[in-house]
Amino acid sequence: MDKKEIISNFFKDYNLNQENLNLIIQQAYFKKLPKDVNVLADECLGFVIVLSGNFRAFIMSNTAKEITIFELNKNDACMMCQDCVFEKIAYNIFIQSTQECEILIIPKELFTMLKDKYPKIYDYVLKLMAMRFNALVNILEQALFTPLSVRLNEFLKAKAKNKIISLSHEEIALHLGSSREVISRIIKTMQKEGFIQQNRKEIIILKDL
Description:
This protein has 209 residues and is α+β, with helices and mostly antiparallel strands. Helices cover 42% and strands 23% of the residues.
């Protein structure tokens, strides 16, 4: 799929005039990112459409403990900029590629113009922000009030593909805001109880968690 087709499909319901649609096609650009790149560290990318790969958005405590808020996969979109949407709002959120990714970027200035000009895009941005904020609140509530063993069970079920989870204990700990040692201890108990089987960097679900 070429750039024109991607952009036309994404904005087909937003009533853009042809001049602005052409402007997006002219200024938007592709970018490939290797694994483990913090996309908010060095530059403001702007509005991003994920074409392939996976990103993990997370917050970090003062002790460098991380907890995942949401993930971005193929066809997802996000404002990958600390002040891309509303200049008065600042987010202390990190977004990192978990594998090789390809994205289509609409520059910050252009997307801000579109947001201000088209009510449907403005509404879309508000809904996107609300969804991300709700995800943050839900994750923090779970971290505070839900036992880690329950959160781990739900995480494994969500990540399983054909009952296989291809993540290390360290990676799982980063997602859940815990330590590798604690996650390993819970997983070892689950294995003893016959719920899972462990191989190298792979967990297999044997029966319903």
